[in-house]
Amino acid sequence: MSIIPSLFGGRRSSVFDPFSLDIWDPISDFPIAKPSDVSRETSALVNARVDWKETPEAHVFKADLPGIKKEEVKVEVEDGNILQITGERKVEKEDKNDKWHRVERSSGKFTRRFRLPENAKMDQVKAAMENGVLTITVPKEQVKKPEVKSIEISG
Q: 110: how many CB neighbours lie within 10 A of its CB?
């Protein structure tokens, strides 16, 4: 067994050889999808970046969705307090004469879900899309300050 990998072909396969090209994948035996089996939808999901901030008046979500039209995005409320953003980035049409040098932009479906706290007014959600940024505003119920009543002490 050689310590230096062969530079002239000849795939070697040895569990004990640290330079072997057949690498054991411990995840391959699990009944879940391997990274090579996962569709391109996952990469689109990763690229749907969302910021969530809470102001005194509302929960504000901002999602970067460059190149996606507002007709291709859906904002929904489900189960009373779950905000769901779904959409799809279409694959660019290919011309047979084109020669691609690099493909980094992802395409496919994406879904993001957020469980909102009890103070969110889910019936008053507003969404707007401008310059590739989706802004969702979920107003909050005003927290009532407890009424304090002074009691006079007799005696």
A: 23
